[in-house]
Each structure stands twice: as C-alpha cells, then as structure tokens.
Design a protein that fits this description.
It contains eleven helices and no strands. It is an all-alpha fold and about 270 residues long. The longest helix has 26 residues, at about 1-25. The chain is globular, with a radius of gyration of 17 Å.
C-alpha cells in the first residue's frame, strides 16, 4: 500500500504543478504559490474529518521543517518552468527528490536490497542521458540550476515527514503547508511581488492547492504504511510533469531525453520492487 499511496501522491503533485504553471504564466510564481499553499493547508485540514488523529509536537515539527522544503521546492520549480522546460527540470527534480528521502529512509533503518541500490544507480544514469540530450544553452543551464534547487527543497520536505506517527493524521501536512505558505508570503513581500493573483487565476491557484493538499496526505499515509517504496514512488511526480509539459504545454522532448526518462522510471521501479 505504501507504493500505491506514494504513486497517487505523485499524480496529485503533478496535477498541482500543472495548475500552478498555468497560473504562474499569467500572474507570477509567488502569488500563485501563496494561494496554492494556503488552500493545500485547508485541504489537509479538511481531511482530519476522515483521519482520526492525536498529533504530537514532534509530528508538527517535522511537518514545519517539511514546509520549508516544500516552499522552496515549489517556488523553484515554477520559477524554473518560466525559464526552461519540464523536460529539463523534471528529471533533475526527480533524481534529487528520490535520493534524499531514500537516503533518509535507509539511515532510519529501512532495509535496502541490491535491487533497490541498482535502481537508484539506473535513475542517475537516466539523468545523465536527459541532461546531455542536446546542446546546453541558457535554457538548459537555468533548468538544471532551478531543478536542483527544487529537488533539494522537495527532497528535504519529503524526508522530514519520515518518522511521523500513524496517529498524527493529516496534521503534519497541515503544518507543512501553513509554513510553506507563510514563507512564500514573506518572499513575495521581500521582492515586492503581488501576494494574491487576480481574476480567474485565483481559481487556477485554488485547484493547484486542492491537489497539493491531497498529495501531502497521501504521501503521509504511504510512508506510514511502507516507508521505502513510498519515499521513492512519492518522488515520481516530475514524470507526470514531463507528460503534462509535452501534451498540455507543448514542451519539446528529444529522443535521448525520452530514453533517459525511461531509465529514471525503470530505476524507480527497481527501488520499489527491491
């Protein structure tokens, strides 16, 4: 069940990023992120109606640390999409995001098999295929930089939730999204960017938040059920973003990048099977 919850979380994150990307193009990254993170917190809070909970301060603390990572991850990801394409950014985010929670799970005592270790290696080889799949122009460099920052943020955010108690319900996700929202508000004020989107963009940001809140809760359920598979499948959301970038936004995908993405997904599958 851990792998399934993680995969569903990745699908939800991908959908959240799709709506976020649409909104960011119209009104800016930070304004969309503020609304998205705030609505995600409300969505996670609403799920307390179905998830009995007795949160502890350590659970809330893990959620808060995760919120710092997710705030950085989302802003960097959407910012990168404004400067490059999902086919460049997503694989970098995917690899970094997988490695950090995977390492945290193993360090925490989760058993790592030879197949799982090989899977991580195959994913890294896939990244090399993707990042060397064409001439490295300014868009490629910007995509790799923003992708690395986003992956680091998301990876830390996911790893911080490992170890939350099964009695915590969705409270860690609520703390995660509240902190991410507050950090994004501060960032918007510092750079004097609009804090709230205007017009119809608000609805786009709202849907981004709904899917984001669902994703956080699904990931929590996954790592509490089976930490290692969930930690990996929960980091597969960039694959969803690549597909959306290709079919919704018309991002260019080179054949060697398709091969590289296939290797990344194969590597992740090896981790899950192991």
């Amino acid at each position: 069940m851990g792998a399934l919850f993680g995969a569903l979380s990745s699908l939800s994150v991908g959908m959240s990023e799709m709506f976020g990307r649409r909104g960011a193009r119209a009104t800016g990254v930070l304004a969309v992120s503020v609304v998205s993170q705030g609505v995600a917190a409300l969505a996670a809070f609403g799920m307390l109606l179905w998830l009995p909970s007795q949160p502890t301060w350590p659970d809330l603390g893990r959620g808060a640390v995760s919120g710092v990572g997710f705030g950085v991850g989302m802003v960097a990801y959407l910012g990168g999409l404004m400067r490059s394409s999902a086919t460049v950014i997503a694989p970098m985010v995917a690899t970094v995001t997988v490695v950090i929670p995977f390492g945290a799970a193993v360090a925490g005592g989760a058993e790592m098999t030879l197949l799982a270790a090989l899977g991580v290696g195959v994913a890294l080889v896939g990244l090399l295929f993707i990042t060397t799949g064409g001439s490295v122009g300014s868009g490629m460099r910007a995509g790799l930089l923003w992708g690395a920052i986003s992956g680091l943020g998301y990876g830390v955010g996911l790893a911080a939730l490992i170890g939350t108690s099964s009695d915590s319900g969705s409270w860690p996700a609520v703390a995660q999204r509240v902190v991410a929202c507050l950090l994004t508000v501060v960032a918007a004020m510092v750079v004097r960017s609009p804090v709230m989107p205007r017009g119809a963009v608000r609805w786009v940001a709202l849907w981004s938040g709904v899917f984001g809140g669902i994703a956080s809760v699904l990931y929590l359920l996954g790592i509490q059920a089976d930490v290692l598979p969930a930690a990996v499948t929960g980091a597969m959301f960039p694959a969803v973003s690549v597909a959306i970038g290709r079919f919704v936004f018309g991002d260019r995908v080179r054949p060697v990048q398709v091969l590289g993405l296939g290797l990344v997904l194969t590597g992740v599958a090896g981790v899950v099977a192991g």
